[in-house]
Amino acid sequence: MKKIVEKITQFIENFKNVHAEARKIGFAGVMRLLWNDLFVGRSLFQWLYLIVLSSVPLILEFTQNTESHDWIGLFASWTGIVCVILVAEGRASNYLFGAINSAIYLVLSMNATFYGEVLTTVYFFVMQPIGLYTWLSNRINEQGRPEESHFEAKKLGLIDWLKYLALTAIIWIGMGLAYQSISSARPFRDSVTDATNGVGQLLMTRLYREQWIFWIATNLFSIYLWWGENIHIQGMYWVYTLNSLVGWYQWTKAVKEG
């Protein structure tokens, strides 16, 4: 109980610091921070990487011999790709694109009747402001550098690994049983991404590099799930997989430098 009270007290104090910093710099200052987080400090290679990978949805859309364009799928794929690239770079602005992507992906998943994806996307949408607060709190309360697009990556110890693997198994089995209770045709297959997405998002919010292992598992299974359904979403997950490998490398480098 004492630890819980301490965590709540620390959260309230950190939140007050974040709010005070936001009031101090004002709306114009917040917009400047967003601009800097999006555009400042990116190398030429990073710019080329961002442009090339975010062009994949456009290439897929305009090379298809179709009479009409899937603008919703295109925008969902584009915002998702930009989001994960910003995550790999440790930029808090990823949460802006993540919120937009989650909202669009929710509609697409409901239309495709992928109800496991619907629940996961609702969870993602809720986690965006929480993740943004955590990342900003890390900069302001721990680093004292709100102006910098800097993050301090951490790595899991053995006990933490066991804890998160156990959580993955609990979510997978629990959601599988829930889907089975409503006569889902593939309950435990649908619940795989619930588990990997859920734990991956928690690790991302807490700045652990091992998030990328869970993202890779999610991406590969999602490619299989969306096969033949929506080419934009398939393309998005292929790019996600590539970016997850890059993210693992960049966050591992950040851990060593920290």
TrEMBL record:
Named from the GO MF annotations, one term is:
nicotinamide riboside transmembrane transporter activity
Q: Where in the cell is it found?
A: Cell membrane
UniProtKB keywords: Cell membrane, Membrane, Transmembrane, Transmembrane helix, Transport
Q: Which organism is it from?
A: Streptococcus infantis ATCC 700779
PANTHER family, A to Z: NICOTINAMIDE RIBOSIDE TRANSPORTER PNUC
Under which name does UniProt file this protein? Answer: Nicotinamide mononucleotide transporter PnuC
UniProt GO cellular component terms: plasma membrane
Family designation: Belongs to the nicotinamide ribonucleoside (NR) uptake permease (TC 4.B.1) family.
Span of the signal peptide:
none
Q: What is its main location?
A: membrane
Top-level taxon: Bacteria
Its membrane topology:
Multi-pass membrane protein
Q: Which residues cross the membrane?
A: 39-59, 71-88, 95-116, 161-182, 212-228
